[in-house]
Each structure stands twice: as structure tokens, then as C-alpha cells.
Amino acid sequence: MPMKRTALSLILLILSAQAESQRGEPSLFLEYERELKKTNETQKVDENPFIKTTPPLVNAKPIPLSEPILKSVAHITPVLRNDKVETDSIGQDAKPFLVIPKPAPITSKEVCQEKTVQAEEPKSKTQKIVHNIRNIKDKLLARAKEFLGTPYGFGSRDGERTDCSGFTQQVYRQFGVSLPRSVAEQAQLGEEVSMDDLQIGDLLFYHTYKSDPSHVAIYAGDGQIIHASYINKKVQFDSIDKAYYKQHFMYAKRIALNDPDYDK
After folding, report:
1. Active site residue 164
2. Catalytic residue among 131, 164, 207, 248
3. Structural domain total, the chain
4. Whole domain around residue 180: which residue ranges?
């Protein structure tokens, strides 16, 4: 009896399992189809990643075919291309560009010609006037030194002998200045200068045997004069601070000079 019950229970269990299996087969099949559909949709999306799906418009009003889609089109200004401009056509009427001509370079030959023309310009009287006063003063002193030791001779102008006014007359003659013969007449020329402003070439006047100017000397710089001395009977240097010349000094004059070597 117990064995019959056990066999019956086993049979019922088998039958129940078969029925349950028959009921579950459709559910498993449906699940498989759903998973397969999802997989196919995912693959399609991966193959076209730039395709964006948009939901359909709800209650969208269709556009009638009889009406034009674009009622008005705005005027579009054409964009000019930045084409390369031909340099050969610049300045023509067809292409009126601004042209600024560049000056031609100056060659060394032209510079030399210009300098040559300037060098050949004639010298004016203004150019002949001495600009370097120190240079002309040194030349005058050099000329005066050429007479050192020349014997004293009253009224002599031949160069072998000379007196004080003849000495100054011969020295200044080389520099374009014609001095009168006598000391008194020479003393009336030029511009008077003070002892503190003496320059080489200035004439110093003294009174010796009369109250008027009777002796003349040329200032040689460094407190010295060069003159034809009546006492020592020759052309020589003396100091302006020597007692005799300090006592008989009257005034000094400055005379404008011309450079004799300027035109050479």
C-alpha cells in the first residue's frame, strides 16, 4: 500500500512538471524575441551614430504645396576675392591704385660729381675774409720775425734797413693792409683795445721825443713786442713791462687783416 502511494505521487509530480514546462515554453520564447529585437536596434544605432531620431511632431500643420516655401530672399552682397594684384598694371585707369614713386638711389658717381661742382664754385669776397683769426695772427708774427736783426735806418723802406713805421708798413702789406708811412698817421687807423685784451698783431703806440705818437711796435704775445728799436739800432723783441715802454705807452690799435694764402 505505501508503495502504491509513492508511485502515484511520483506520477503526479512528473505530470505536473510536464504541464508546467508546457506553460513556460511560450514565455521563454517571447523573452528571447524581445532581447533579439533590442540587440538589433542597438547595432543599428552604433552603425549610424550621427543619425538623430526625433520624435514625430504632434498636431503639426502641413505646408500646402501651392504656397512658396520662401516668400522673400534677402539680397546677398557678393564677397570679393583677395586676388593678387599685378604690379605691372598699377596706376592704369582700369585699376586706379595709389602709386608713390620711390626716389632713385644716388650713385657714388653722382655724389662725386656734386662735390666737384661745389668745389669749382667761384670764391666770393666774403669767403676771402679770414675766418680763423688765430691762424692769420700766427702768419703775421712769422712775417715780422723775418725782420729780426734788420739794421735800423730812419725812413728806409727797401728791406735792408728800416725804422719803426717802415717795419710795420712792410709786415702789414703782405696781409692786404696799406698802412700810411708815418707813425702819427698809422695811429689814426683801427680800433682801440685795452692792454688786457691784446692779441698778436695789434699795434702799440708810444710817445718818445714828442707828446704825439712817435714810435710803433707789433704785439708778439706773451707780454712781448717786436719793433725796430732806435736805441739798439735793429729789429728785436722787448717786454711791454720794460720801464721805458711802460712810461711812454699811449694806446693799442687793432686792424682787420686778410689771409694772403687763402686763394692759393
Report:
1. yes
2. 164
3. 1
4. 129-254
CATH of the domain at 175: 3.90.1720.10
Please report, as a single letter, which amino acid is at residue 242. K
Tell me if 160 sits within 8 A of 151, measured CB to CB: yes
Q: What is the mean pLDDT of residues 31-36?
A: 69
> What phi-psi label fits residue 159: left (phi over 0), alpha (psi between -120 and 50 degrees) or beta?
left
Catalytic residue among 75, 131, 215, 248: 215
Residue 75 annotated among the catalytic residues of the structure: no
3-state SS, residue 31: helix
| Residue 71 included in any domain | no
Asked if residue 187 lies in contact with residue 202, where contact means CB atoms within 8 angstroms, the answer is no
pTM beyond 0.70, yes or no? no
Q: What angle do CA 185, 191, 192 make, to 5 degrees?
A: 90
In a domain, 148, yes or no: yes
Chain segment 104-115, per-residue pLDDT in tens? 665 555 444 444
In a domain, 175, yes or no: yes
| 228 domain-assigned | yes
Q: How far apart are CA 31 and CA 122, in angstroms?
A: 123
Instruction: Determine how many CB atoms are found less than 10 A away from the CB of residue 181.
Output: 13
112 is catalytic: no
Residues ≥6 apart with Cβ < 8 Å to 206: 213, 214, 215, 216, 217, 245, 248, 249, 250
The values of phi and psi at residue 193, to 5°, are -130, 155
Contacts of 143 (CB under 8 A, 6+ apart): 171, 174, 175
What's the rounded Cα separation, in Å, for the pair 147 and 216? 15
Mean pLDDT over 9-30 rounds to 65
